């Protein structure tokens, strides 16, 4: 366990489980990239307050006009139903993990911390190449070289776990899953139909853990 | 020469020479991180307008409160005289190149471009580890892996050149050096005393090229 670390947190169940595992020796980086599902930021802040963990929000809305695209911050609707390769691709914000991790590493260097964590998991690999172990290793190597005066290592401890594995781990740790947010649609309840809602439901079922989420449509 | 590329540009003589070399098949990324020397952004825009090159400005001032430090965007004064190891270190914005390059790569992915360029050179290596060839190679490798659907290569073609070599090259290419900006102090003329001014003067002298810069103090 690190002395002090930075963790990227979205407010979803994966990154919340990660923060729960690292607490109390962690500071949290939230990223506001103008996501439609603003509720996830609110959930993340509530969880950090509950844990009395310091967080900072990086406002990247100034990048929207030229980088962001697809259904998470653009005009496109998020895909419904089970993720297919095509529908998952529309949720990609180009190079998002590199941008967020670079900022987290910058903050770590400023604080003199040596570890940055994020919650990439095996279910993301097929479509998001920046959630794969080989990306994490290559990126971490670059961060060590690029900050040779204060090298930082990037960790993705869930990279070989499924979302169901994470639910199981979070359940054992006592993570308050009802405080987390997955839905991409952005209303007040989880829609129950979009790709992330379907994935969330399925993870609880596979893990054999009761799902505390209230879905608008079951 | 790439079909279409993104280049990071500061408005200094190194990145201006790079853009001149890549023109017209290049788009330019400027980064506003609240630098004291705002004049460099103005110079960069004027140069892009002169070349009729499209540029975008990434506004990262929202990161200031937790990442930026040192003399370039904080309250500390920039060091005067020749750069020493210590005085150069105060000009470091933590993990700056990774942050800027990640954004440039994101823009490249969005546009379907495959190449990102920046003007790190040999004079930067001693103090800025993220200007060294081994960092560039490691970071580029991570960008290829992390964007496997649209891999991007990061290039630093001046990484083994000195600033004097760049002045020589720029002179041959016809770069209007009088339009470029190096000074970190941030008044209307180059101060002639800060580390970058001293470096700039020296580069022209070593290159045997007339220095068109008007310095406040010679």
What does this structure look like?
Chain A is 38% helix and 10% strand. Chain A has one domain: 3-Layer(aba) Sandwich (Rossmann fold), CATH 3.40.50.620. The first copy, chain A, has 218 residues and is of the alpha/beta class. Chain A is built from seven helices and five strands. Residues 85-91 of chain A have low confidence and may be disordered. Chain A has helices spanning 13-22, 39-51, 85-89, 96-111, 133-146, 163-173, 195-207, and strands spanning 5-8, 26-32, 55-59, 115-117, 153-155. Chain A binds chain B through residues 56, 58-63, 65-67, 69, 89, 93-99, 101-103, 105-107, 109-110, 129-130, 132, 134-135, 138-139, 141-143, 145-150, 152, and chain B through 56, 58-63, 65-67, 69, 89, 93-99, 101-103, 105-107, 109-110, 129-130, 132, 134-135, 138-139, 141-143, 145-150, 152.
Tags for this model:
Rossmann fold; homodimer; alpha/beta; 5-stranded parallel β-sheet
Short note summarizing the structure:
The structure is a homodimer of 218-residue chains. Chain A is α/β, with parallel strands linked by helices and 218 residues long.
Q: State the CATH architecture of chain A.
A: 3-Layer(aba) Sandwich
Query: Number of helix segments of chain A?
Result: 7
Taken in chain order, the helices and strands of chain A follow as EHEHEHHEHEHH
End-to-end separation of chain A in angstroms reads 39 Å
So what's the oligomer here? homodimer
What CATH first level of chain A would be assigned? Answer: Alpha Beta
Please outline the major beta sheet of chain A.
5 strands, parallel
- The gyration radius over C-alpha positions of chain A equals 16 Å
The name of the CATH superfamily of chain A reads HUPs
| Proportion of residues in helical segments of chain A | 25-40%
Number of strands of chain A: 5
Domain count of chain A: 1
The helix/strand class of chain A is alpha/beta
> Which chain pair has the greatest contact?
A-B, 44 and 44 residues
CATH fold name of chain A: Rossmann fold
Tell me the fraction of residues in β-strands of chain A, as a range: 5-15%
The rough form of chain A would be described as: globular
> Mean of the pLDDT scores of chain A?
88
Low-confidence stretches of chain A: 85-91
Order the strands across the largest sheet of chain A as they lie in space. 3-2-1-4-5
């Amino acid at each position: 366990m690190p002395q002090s670390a930075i963790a990227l947190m979205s407010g979803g169940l994966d990154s919340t489980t990660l923060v729960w595992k690292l607490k109390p020796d962690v500071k949290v980086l939230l990223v506001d990239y103008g996501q439609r599902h603003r509720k996830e930021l609110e959930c993340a802040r509530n969880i950090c307050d509950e844990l009395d963990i310091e967080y900072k929000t990086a406002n990247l809305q100034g990048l929207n006009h030229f980088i962001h695209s697809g259904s998470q911050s653009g005009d496109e609707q998020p895909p419904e139903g089970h993720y297919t390769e095509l529908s998952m691709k529309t949720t990609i914000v180009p190079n998002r993990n590199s941008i967020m991790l670079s900022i987290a590493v910058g903050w770590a260097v400023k604080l003199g911390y040596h570890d940055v964590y994020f919650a990439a998991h095996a279910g993301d690999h097929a479509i998001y190449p920046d959630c794969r172990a080989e990306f994490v290793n290559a990126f971490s190597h670059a961060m060590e070289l690029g900050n040779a005066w204060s090298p930082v290592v990037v960790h993705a401890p869930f990279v070989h776990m499924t979302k169901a594995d994470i639910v199981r781990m979070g359940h054992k740790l006592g993570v308050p899953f009802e405080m987390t947010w997955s839905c991409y649609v952005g209303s007040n309840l989880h829609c129950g139909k979009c790709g992330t809602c379907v994935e969330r439901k399925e993870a609880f079922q596979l893990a054999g853990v009761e799902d505390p989420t209230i879905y608008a449509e079951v």
